[in-house]
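Continuing from the previous page of notes. For each protein in this section, the sequence appears first, followed by its structure tokens. Read the first protein now.
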Amino acid sequence: MTSTLGIAVIGTGKMGADHVRRFGRSVGGARVVAVADPDGDRVKEVAGALEGVSAHTDPAAAIAAPGVDAVLIASPGPAHEEAILHALARRLPVLCEKPLTPDPVGGLRIMEAEARLGRRLVQVGFMRRYDTEYVRLKELLDTGGIGRPLFLHCRHRNAASPSFFTSDMLISDSAVHEVDAARWLLGQEITAVTVLSPTSTSAAPEGLRDPRLVLLETSGGAVVDVEVFVNCGVGYQVQCEAVGEAGSARIGDGHAMVVQSAGRWGGEIDQDFTVRFADAYDRQLRGWVAAAARGRVDGPDAWDGYAASAVSEAGLAAARSGVRTLVEQVRRPALYDR
């Protein structure tokens, strides 16, 4: 690979365009050389804002473009598998936004492709692992600072959901972040899921079941509860409290600055995930670029993406049935042992 990594970005919506802006602005050692999106006008607009970037409507063409050393995938979930397999066929490192695939079967096919190569090349964009507060909580749990963890209490709130958001997406697109965070923080797999749905908020679009409470049981005997509320009307709030045998710790309060004025006190609440996790996204991309330049994967890998999809599948089944549902997944292949 070259000293400056050439990146193909697949998908130029909100997330893809945000990543494109990060290269050259806050992430060194890499530059975007190709972009792809089925919206021809959109992809030309994004490419036109950068020097020497080719625009494509076919992801395979962008991945095969001259100068591409690695691939960042930010397209909708159903398109991920095909793009990843194109990149793996060229032995290119990949950073894929979650979900790795919409279902665990697709994740299995990706892991099989990596097994044929004999190496891990795919990283999944679970950026919370790079957030400073989450990293500190992970270190506290790993060192036994609050004893054996018993509970994680999680909140995942958005001010309002986009027009395309569905009831299933509260689990597969929102709660999936807590799924990965819980697996990582606790070092345990999730074994069962229960989903409870109270009366929907009047702020939710017609037909959207919002909010939801997702209960996760782990292989180590911990319990994780996740409140997902995507039309809370207040702002973007992600919080996690770990309760252990010898104490507790909470992150995500967002009280970096508290203002006292005119007889009141308070602060601002972030309105968007790209603001709340801006630093985490920067750290994630820097880490990925450094690892990709060495031909390695240092972050959440295809196994993590597959495991999250398996839990999401169980969660969707639990939401439909209203009963506790076991998570079904294969034994972790040796390639992904750490």
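Done with the first. The second protein uses the same format. Note its length before scrolling.
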Amino acid sequence: MAELEGKVALVTGGATGIGLAAATLFAAEGARVFITGRRQAELDAAAARIGATAIRGDVSDLADLDAIAARIAEAAGRLDVLFANAGGADTLATIAELRPESFDEVFGTNVRGAAFTVQKTLPLMPDGASIVVTGSTSASRGNPGFGTYSASKAALRQYARVWAAELAPRRIRVNVLVPGPTDTPGLRGIAGDPAGVPALLAQMAASTPLNRVADPAEIAQAALFLASDRSSFITGSELFADGGEVQVFPAA
């Protein structure tokens, strides 16, 4: 039997990158999948490719989150798997360069967005549901320029611990998936100029003992494990799918 046969899953940020790969795999494993994103054209294309239901929405907007939860409630009546994956940082800044607007944007999407995605969809979750939150190896490192992004992902790690305790009486498991460098549009965007992408990918590959970046499909497999009953005795944890970046090269 497929890993998620008969389950209902929501993947936020599901139109590209890791979210798209996870949504594709969840659907292949039998789930009825809903995906969200801010860009309608990308979202519709992804939904058509997967066979998922697209719901346009910004996770930092509470009205959008209410609409997403209402749409899932009407269409499916429940939510067995939440992959709170939406997030990122369009710009990086040192403490000297940090602007309040960029701080609010990063924390608004990465922390506020994830927290209220969980809150708004929680009434749809049956006992035994699974929540997976996308973390980052940046939360374990001190890379210059990544302070706000790193802090936002560290906040999610602590939220997951607390949520795991709060939701344990309902057997709802909460775990953090920590990808290493993964070949996604978001990662490539750090280069700024497309001509700089090969050098960026080579630099990122060198940060891992496996000496390569991940394919999004590899991270999706880890998401599937945490979403499925195979991880039934795992909650409040971090699963590092990082090619050894943090565990083997902690000071790099």
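What the second structure shows: Residues 100-121 form the longest helix (22 residues). Helices lie at 17-28, 40-50, 62-75, 100-121, 147-167, 185-189, 197-206, 216-227. We return to this in next week's lecture.
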